[in-house]
Amino acid sequence: MRQFLMAFGLVVLGTSALAEEAALVNVSGDVFMAGSSVQSESGADDLFLVGQTVRAAGEATGSAHLAGRRVDLSGAVGGDLYALGMDVTVTGDVAGDATLSGYDISVGRVGGDLRATGSQVTVGGPVGGYAFLAAEELRVDGVIEGDVHLSARQLEFGPDARIGGQLVLYEETPGKLEVPASVIAGERIERRDIESRDRHMRPFGWAGYIGSFLSAVIVIAALAALIAALVPQQLAAMRRRILDAPFRTLWLGFLTQSAVIGSAVLFAMTLVGVFLSPAALLVAAIGGFAGYVVGIYAFGVGLLLAWGRDEPASIGQRALAAGFGALVAGVIGLIPVLGWIFLLAVSLAGVGAITTWIFRPQFFGALPSE
Residue 173, Cβ neighbours under 10 Å: how many? Predict the structure, then answer.
């Protein structure tokens, strides 16, 4: 089990996020904390906090990654800030860029660029770079040095609000939003129809986001239950192999996907087999998704075993384990860069386990039984 946790790195965050007390991991100055109520008051290089209530008062010399229902950052951040929550309050200075998403967002000084999307967004400023803002209700109280692209149904400017660059307004009815001359000169304002804005500029909707997220969790759980009903012994064996030898299955999955995708290139090079290339890519895609389902199931069972639960014996228990694994993995996947690497590792480990199951009877002997 320890090897499994080492292989997937941030599993500690996912398991402890539902615990009463926060868990702390310090890796070369980078701080990882998770729990129901998380508070970080000491300094750190990079900061990773996940919980229901997250408070960061200590200084982070690097980047900060915060996720929770209520997020409060009062400490300074020397690098970039990424925060996701229902209520996000940033009173500490951010030297780099800030990317914020939530329902109610309040942010102060940002040295770099600001990207914020929510229902109610307040920008205290100043902001040293550009700003991308999307909200139902938006208020700007400070100075934004760069360009501003914003979409809002209600827009307010405080007495100290200033925009140093160009202002691009995305409106349902161009000309409806009023911008005082004290904020920006009229010749630097561009008004566009709301349909022309990019997808990422659309106002944040929690209902749609959460609905899509939970739908994905349900689909993964249903597929795992289907596999458990069809091949319960084999699924249990693949899960054990991932937990017992995560690095081996991860490496084998990488080799398998590389071989399948590489075969598509070789088919294309022969000209005669160019029509087989799409089939090879399709196999790689299907295999990757199947590997993700198996990997997520193993991940969920691993979390339950770490809590002292018994191995799942029924189809319902296996579906629950897969759903729990998909839920925690989805939260971890929100972490920029590291989250994508984690999900890729889960998929490749699953592919490796499937490959071992298919070819082991010929090359490696029998699989262990349930």
Answer: 9
